Amino acid sequence: MSDAKKACARSLVGWILAAWILAMQGAHAAEDEELEERLPGMEVQRIDEPVFKGRVVVYEGGKENAREVLLVHGIGSDGARDFREHIEWLQKSYHVVALDLPGFGQSDKANVLYSPGNYARVLRHVAGRFLKRPFALVGYSMGAVVSLRYAAEHPEDVERLVVIDAPGVLQLQSLTSHYLAHVGLEFVPDAIDPVVGLARLARRLLAPLESLQPDLEAVLSNPDMRARVLGGDPAKIAGLAVASEDLREVLPKVAAETLIVWGADDTIAPLRSGKVLALELPRARLTLIEHAGHEVMLEAPQRFREALEPFLDRGLPPEPAGPEVRLPQHGDAECRGERDALFEGEYGKLTLEKCPDARIRNARVRELRMLKSSVTIEDSRIGGGKIGIYASGAAITMTGGRIEGDTAIRARSSRFDLAAVEVVGRKAAVASQNRSYVVFSLSRVHSPRTNGELHGFYAVTAKKPL
């Protein structure tokens, strides 16, 4: 080929390449113009991300500000628009970066493992490109679990952490499947009140759960299973991955001051999860937004701002030093055939017989005996003698506190749901004459047979105590 022809060919190739670049820039500009409308006032761009090998949409505003904040959304087509009520005021004081996580909003979608760990890797990539460290990290719903994992894996990056209505804190088998139903997964049934039939409860709800967790892990890890069971739907994949997340090793590594914000009426991620986080995180404070549900940022934007803004500016305030509270002394007490009974203070032996929906809070109970009853226990210590709790045909849900005794729990056809509870049995932590069930969420168990933090589902029999 002559030099003239070569020059002509190079010119033609160059023209084609230039035309292609201009066309792509025009296409991306059109895409970016469409995305700009999703978060007014924020610049928007698509970037390649190395985790799922796709493209992710990133929004940026307030670049002139020195303080940095990264916003991480929950499950849903809105993506970063979850924060739309707060972008305007945030970018007046902060350099704000938000993104549509892969699988959501305008980012690429595929049948891949949208897990909190993988999403944390995406955040790391985005933070490295757009933010100076350390920064404030704000996560909502699924994004809150992702943010917890990020803060644990990269504590040097996160100056302050905000966790908003986080699901997936409690063990999957704990109490309710509302969150899974929220993302379209309803194959885990809701709990049944054991007072109306313990045998039916065990048969329909608890017994199948002994083998459920490995099955869920197999579904999440296999592309064909994700396609067959979850339809390859990013929301279902991410929802199941969040619900299956085990935070035992994550929470102690979170070094940043943490504000936990919760809608008091949240039924998707129940308030109990927020209380557990406040107990388990090293430096955390729980703030309730009354008369708000799971979408607390949209349902109560002004009250949410009033909780968030001072924390971003100054961190957690000092703990108030209140006077030592003396518990009222009640001696022995009992409940027979009464619904919604409330017990507070210090008791010797407390007996509940055919008492549904009883509550024990801020209490010290030397021995708790339950017969065909259900109870919710919060911030209490049970036991100290031979038996802490004796339960027959009963259901116990306990958050925080301690159960202790020679045998901490002696059960018969009962169910226990224990979150952030310490169980100390000098001879046995849990013993059952016949099959009973225990769901542990981030709880510590100490006995001659079991020693350590448990986060799982256990069937306890006479031959299999804990």
Strand content: 25-35%
Name the CATH architecture of the largest domain.
Answer: 3-Layer(aba) Sandwich
What would you report as the Rg, rounded to the nearest angstrom?
A: 26 Å
Low-confidence spans: pLDDT under 50, at least 5 residues? 2-33, 187-212
The percentage helix is: 25-40%
Give the total of beta strands.
Answer: 20
Task: Report what the structure shows.
It is a single chain. This protein folds into two domains: 222 residues, 3-Layer(aba) Sandwich (Rossmann fold); 132 residues, no CATH class. It is of the alpha/beta class. The strands form two sheets. Strands 9, 10, 11, 12, 13, 14, 15, 16, 17, 18, 19 and 20 form a twelve-stranded mixed beta sheet that branches. Strands 1-2-4-3-5-6-7-8 form an eight-stranded mixed beta sheet, with helices on both faces. The N and C termini lie far apart (84 Å). It is globular, with a radius of gyration of 26 Å. It has twelve helices and 20 strands.
